[in-house]
Amino acid sequence: MALVSLRNVTKAYPNPNDGDPILAIDDVSLDIEAGDVFGIIGYSGAGKSTLVRLINALEPVSSGSVVVDGQELAGLPEKQLRPVRLGIGMIFQQFNLFNAKTVWNNVAYPLRVAGASKEKIQARVDELLEFVGLSDKAKNYPEQLSGGQKQRVGIARALATEPRILLCDEATSALDPETTHEVLALLKRVNEEFGVTMVVITHEMDVIQTLATKVAVMDKGRVIETGEVFDVFSDP
Ligand code: ADP
Ligand code: ADP
Q: Which of 5, 102, 206, 234 has minimal Cβ neighbours within 10 Å of its Cβ?
């Protein structure tokens, strides 16, 4: 069974202008297999971020089914959603680091929340900072880092609790091309060395072609095409 499976998912938001509800996700079915780097591409407003929030159990679906790691999320009470969220790491366009915490404490944070032991936190944070190449920045604060370094902290923090799934929401959209290339190379290593399944949300074709193996193309809340990147984007 797929690691993430969506069946006939819809998500409607109330219309602020009292009109018909806004159908952010319209009858989407998708299968993301363990080990995939699965790209989701589409223009602004296509529904990509909404889809991420449904997979991450941050919002309930309006109808349909979302199964993550064998667990049906639709209808699950809040308390049972927490362990599902712990199994999913996230990185963001604006990095979302804690600016008042050191690099080291940013990466330690999810482990502290999860109640890990001091020894475990120490070992894991040091190992992750080494993996992302920022051991020498442990005591720095985010504002002292470049954009690429900030995103590497974001990646280390997202991996702290050893999630099976990493959701990347426009993770390189704030970075210049060279830095984008470095971060994409690091994400590729996360997939290859740790076997983390990745869902890569982007509006940039380059990101999909560099990183993803499979892709879904979204438009107006629907998946209009899906398959291997090579097949979807090769000329007919
Ligand atoms: P994308 O990430 O592809 O830019 P979004 O998922 O953010 O797309 O948005 C899809 C559609 O859903 C848009 O029309 C957007 O305005 C609408 N939408 C998203 N979130 C909300 C919300 N919380 N309330 C109302 N409408 C929303
Ligand atoms: P506490 O849990 O009381 O904050 P810690 O021993 O976890 O104490 O950490 C104390 C401080 O030392 C933290 O602010 C952390 O940023 C820093 N620190 C701990 N280990 C390292 C390390 N390996 N490299 C850099 N800074 C570290």
A: 234
